[in-house]
Amino acid sequence: MKTKVLILGAGGAIARHVISALQKNSDIVLTLFARNAEQLHVESSAKIIEGDVLNKEDIGTAVKGQDIVYANLSGPVDQMARSIVATMNTHGVRRLIFVTALGIYNEVTGEFGEWNNRMIGAELVRYRKAADVIENSDLDYTIVRPSWLTNKDETDYETTQKGEAFRGTEVARKAVGTYIAAIILHPGKDVKASVGVNKPGIYGDKPAFY
Questions:
Q1: The total number of structural domains that make up the chain
Q2: Where is the NAD(P)-binding domain (predicted)?
Q3: Is residue 44 a part of any domain in this protein?
Q4: pLDDT per residue over 43-89, tens digit each?
Q5: pTM, whole model, 2 decimals?
Q6: Rounded distance, CA 193 to CA 191, Å?
Q7: CB–CB of 53/6 below 8 Å?
Q8: How many other C-beta atoms can be found within 10 angstroms of the C-beta atom of residue 2?
């Protein structure tokens, strides 16, 4: 049986890596949702929907009939999380993968944690609210918390679970995409979990590119 996967925010850099990893898999049927469909350059038979996650009709049309929803969004992500959870409940779709950010639980310790809060502390409030909405739902969710992102052509990553200290200062977008694709292919992985993703062995007070 084929697995129907909806990608919200399909024009984003991480999402593009996920699409690349999945688009030639004959067992996966992709639906790509973006505010601007012209941003999508996909060499596959994926269905493309242009719309707004906060528009009830748009998101309802996209979610209906899917098996897995993967959301990689920016902006008012807390409102978006509420919209997605409500729509998935309405249509009986259970599996959600939702990307947030490192630091939403104050899990980044030491000088790196202080630096991270200075850099993105204001944004973390929205991401934490989004995570709270998802964690308080009945969905089979995985919240993904990537470290600071690079465009390196590498797929190495390690993970930490909620409640564990987050150490790694960076990770490649391609590596995060590899992790997310692995969840989509094995949807029993990291269910009802909030997972930090970083490059192994790269630790310090801030990312090397700052």
A1: 1
A2: 9-187
A3: yes
A4: 668 899 999 999 999 999 999 999 999 999 999 999 999 999 999 99
A5: 0.96
A6: 5
A7: no
A8: 10
Encoded amino acid at 72, one letter: N
Residue range of the domain that includes 72:
3-198
Residues 6+ apart with CB under 8 A from 66: 4, 5, 6, 31, 91, 93
Residue 154 CA: distances (Å) to CA of 3, 100, 123, 175, 195: 27, 21, 27, 6, 19
Q: Give the C-alpha separation, 109 to 81, whole Å.
A: 27
pLDDT digits (tens, 9 = 90+) for 83-114: 999 999 999 999 999 999 999 999 999 999 99
* Residue 128 forms part of a structural domain: yes
CA distance 98 to 36: 20
* CB-based contact 109:51 (threshold 8 Å): no
Q: Is position 167 within any domain?
A: yes
Compute the residue count for the chain: 210
The CATH number of the domain holding residue 102 is 3.40.50.720
Residue 143: inside a domain: yes
Query: Number of C-alpha atoms within 13 angstroms, CB side, residue 62?
Result: 32
What are the C-alpha distances in Å from 197 to residues 164, 165, 194? Answer: 12, 12, 10
Which residues are CB-contacts of 78 (< 8 A; sequence separation ≥ 6)?
126, 127, 129, 130, 133
Q: How far apart are CA 25 and CA 99, in angstroms?
A: 23
Name, in order, each residue with C-beta under 8 angstroms of 56's C-beta and a sequence gap of 6 or more.
Answer: 83, 87
